[in-house]
Amino acid sequence: MAKIRLDKYLCQCLGISRKEAKEKIKNGQAVINGTKVRKPEYKVDPEQNEIQCQEEMLTYEELHYLMLHKPQGVVSATKDPVEKTVLDLIREPYGKKLFPVGRLDKDTEGLMLLTDDGKLAHELMSPKKHVEKTYYAEVAGKMGEREIRAFADGLEIGGGETAKPGILEVLDASEEGSRVQITITEGKFHQIKRMVKAVGSEVLYLKRLTIGPLRLDDTLPSGSYRKLTEEEIRRLKEKKC
Ligand code: URA
To answer: 3-class DSSP state for residue 14?
Structure first.
């Protein structure tokens, strides 16, 4: 593997900015093979050198995985001439090299996986893999047994399209509205909204909670993100749902 600058290495491993990495190095927090190095431009070999920062041993990742709590009002494209995109929420060092796995509507919030691992993204989105996605929704009117059965049977959702069977769980329901959880294995355009419409209701609020084994961290405020843990990455790759 090619050598890289120490400050760049810290950025990649710790998910911090170049400025923060330089500060840590200048404060003597970076240790290479047991020796403090205070030069940000010092070249390290990620495979050969043992690199610690603040006594934590670092491991270099060539691929990156972020969990974003997408807020409403942001589009899930990589660029847009007018709208704010999910990538506009991501700071250095990830820059523009990541892309979102699947789409969420502008008015939908919740779990978004951002990565530069094209293989994993392809597998998670492939219709053949049937990766489950779970959403929390607030909908108009009372949902009950009739709607649960309709979801379980699969629904005509317009435009000549049929949604495969999904799981509708009713958390609470009254004539004013219902709170539900919906699990689907596809990612058709506006799929949840179209399924809910097909049973005569309307989505008023939508939030994605899971993608396969990955669950939105409920300590992550809307608009913020964190690196996936090793365990989360491992489970996603195994796709143990
Ligand atoms: N289904 C929808 O209708 N919207 C989303 O954002 C995601 C799934």
So the answer is: helix
